[in-house]
Amino acid sequence: MKLKFISKIDYLLLLCIVFLTSIGIAFIYSSGFNSDGVNVSREYIKQIIWLGIGLVLLIAVSAFDYRQLNKYSLHFYVAMIAMLLYTRFFGRLVNGARSWIGIGDFGIQPSELTKIAFILFLSKYLAGSQNEDPTKRFLKSLVILGIPMGVILLQPDLGTATVFLPTFLFMCFMANIPVRYLLIVFFTGMTTVVLTVLPVWETEILRKSVPAIHILTNFKLRMLVFVALLGITVIGVIGFILFRKKYYYWITYAFGILTTSILGSVAAGKVMKPYQIARLIVFIDPYSDPKGAGWNIIQSKTAIGAGGLLGRGFLQGSQSHRRFLPQQSTDFIFSIFSEEMGFIGGVAMYAAFLCILLRILYVIKQTTNNYSCYIASGILGMFFYHFIVNVGMVMGIMPITGIPLPFMSYGGSALITNMIAIGLIMSINSRRLDFSSAI
């Protein structure tokens, strides 16, 4: 039995994980050195401990029949929502968000583990609702998404909350939810972000008055626009019900997105602080606030550029050792890695991530039931989004959202979540030809 389990391990996937976590620990260690050559941090020791725990969980989950999780996914989902609510009111305040619970230096971030609970429960629902009306199916899925995402936004932790959107879209696409419904989620999210950041963009980046943006800065005007948009949406709904004309449907579709977006921007403005909103747009012109919101991007790009082709060498990075990069062991670990290992090192890291994503795609293609397909699709969306946003963020081509780089950034909760996710992929892959308990 043991030999059978060992023979089913995806060693290529495991090799990529070991490679990324190893270099992650190495550069977390490097980030701890100061300009005097003294290591003033013990984060790498804690990361090694978390890695040990994560590897045990990876093996345990991969050995466990993932299909049995179907029975407990609702309980796991509800438990994590309860933990998120507890964290919102009684958690530890870190970097402006109340998203941690724990004792002393060790703590967990429930929002990270909630990603797994969300994927499992949404997969259960999608797999069991194949014959439901597509609209009802989409709306129920949206509720499953909205509850954890809404609570996380209240912490407020925008970065982690945004991860749920691509995960949701990947899963629903594979579940044959109509694309027009998924586009509602996508366009509503994008429009909400635009309407939220425009006032800050006017004052921080453009630095001149734009009359049209005054609608977004004056609460009464914004509410007036909201009521008008809502009225048009209602007219569209009534018109479609009475006359069944397609243009009424598209009026409802377009103005419904605008109505929801403007309401969402009001809520976001209440929850998020101006400096958090500024971080979303400062990548457009980091020199508009070089010593404030733009500092991270400027220093990150400097570090990456300084690495050149071959890098400065391990433990030779000046940007990190001189503490020019805030959160250098978490959000900006790729900047340190690039400075010391250069372009060649970056290519090797990209290759490892590409291999992970391709292996997950292979598992999706080979799955024998919908439940496993949706789980793997959600994990693919989660990893893809994390990688694209983190790398784009440190290169200055995407907003700074506090998204860590999987397997490399410092953080126990994220590492354990990622290890559990890989364990699920291995469990699915090793049982793809076992039809005895197929869901």
Can you walk through the features of this model?
The protein is globular. It is an all-alpha fold and 439 residues long. Helix 5 runs antiparallel to helix 16, helix 6 packs antiparallel against helix 7 and helix 15 packs antiparallel against helix 16 (370-394). The protein contains 17 helices and three strands. Helices cover 70% and strands 3% of the residues. The protein has a three-stranded antiparallel beta sheet with strand order 1-2-3. The two termini are 24 Å apart.
Quick summary:
By secondary structure, the chain is an all-alpha fold. Helices cover 70% and strands 3% of the residues.
Cα radius of gyration in angstroms: 23 Å
**Helix fraction by DSSP (H/I, runs of at least 4):** 55-70%
Number of strands: 3
**Topology pattern, helix = H, strand = E:** HHHHEEEHHHHHHHHHHHHH
* Alpha-carbon distance between the two ends: 24 Å
Main β sheet profile:
3 strands, antiparallel
Number of helices: 17
Average pLDDT level: 88
**How big a fraction of the residues is strand?**
under 5%
User: What best-fitting shape do the alpha-carbon axes yield?
Assistant: globular
Main sheet strand line-up = 1-2-3
SS-based class: mainly alpha
Low-confidence stretches: none
